[in-house]
Amino acid sequence: MSNTLRLIGRRLLVLPVMILGITFLVFFVMSFSNVDPARIALGESADAAALEAWRDQRGLNDPLIVQYFRFLVGLLHGDLGTYSARQLPVNDAIAGAFPVTMQLTFFGLIIAVVFALILGIVAALYRDRWPDQVIRVVSMASLSMPSFWLAVLLIQLFTLQLRLVPASGPLPALSEDPIGWLNRMALPAIALAVPVIGQLSRVVRTAMVEELDRDYVRTAIGAGIPRSVVISRNVLRNALITPITVLGLRVGYLLGGAIVIEVIFALPGMGMTIFQGITANEPNLVQGVTLVVALAFVVINIVVDLLYVLINPRIRSV
């Protein structure tokens, strides 16, 4: 148990360093933007003296390192700045958009995990037979499909031709209208999940095959333990260690892919928010969204690392 706590502690200690690095990178990359916040706030008709006074008032003429530390202080207080001529808080825009992105990400994750487990386990149990061959073809096909291309095909088939589910429109709250929420989220989540299903199912299949070939499986079955019990209690648990590691890497893909998918399906998430920020020349909004998405990616991967430690007993003894 002490080894587990030490491993968890080491991972948690790395978290502040990674967050600081992300804030540094995002801030200094956005500092190269040629958009003038003063011009956006005061309008094109503002004279040079008014623009300069506006910049002095907000510290935009200070050295970049001073601005960065001021940004860090604001970040520690939960302040990501403002955007647009009306000085709207970036926090408010993110507070409305972030839950939508996380809902889409985890809905796609659930779909990917469920189908990848089913396909991978079936392929391993029927290794080198026709179910395995069919699943291999399906996996390779899904792996080769970009999410944005698949999204367009899904819209063409299920929205424009069959008219089964909408591809745009308002997103109902999950707690108030779960059926409406499901109809609105179904196509984006499927488009997001399909490429992950292809890769993860192959990883599950390979890990299952390796475990099925181990001596303890043959010994347990030879001792009279039912094959189904050995697979469910031992083989599956040991085989999931590698897929969980791969899944941690793919969560970042799902989160980043959700940003693109939201624009295609007009979902009011982080993707649409950053798209609006880019088209409206709002560097503060783009910076805030990018920072929050990057932080979410880091935190999710830390959680996956901790889950990996808890599931894999061999890591605990290191």
Could you explain the architecture of this structure?
With 318 residues, the protein is an all-alpha fold. The chain folds into two domains: 2-90, no CATH class; 91-316, MetI-like (MetI-like fold, Orthogonal Bundle), CATH 1.10.3720.10. Helix content is 78%, strand content 1%. The chain contains 14 helices and two strands. It has helices at 2-30, 37-42, 48-57, 64-76, 90-125, 130-143, 147-161, 178-212, 215-222, 227-239, 241-265, 270-279, 283-311, 313-316; strands spanning 82-83, 88-89. It has a two-stranded antiparallel sheet. The protein is globular and about 85 Å long.
Keywords:
14 helices, 2 domains, 318 residues, mainly alpha, single chain, MetI-like fold, 1% strand, 2 strands, two-stranded antiparallel sheet, 78% helix
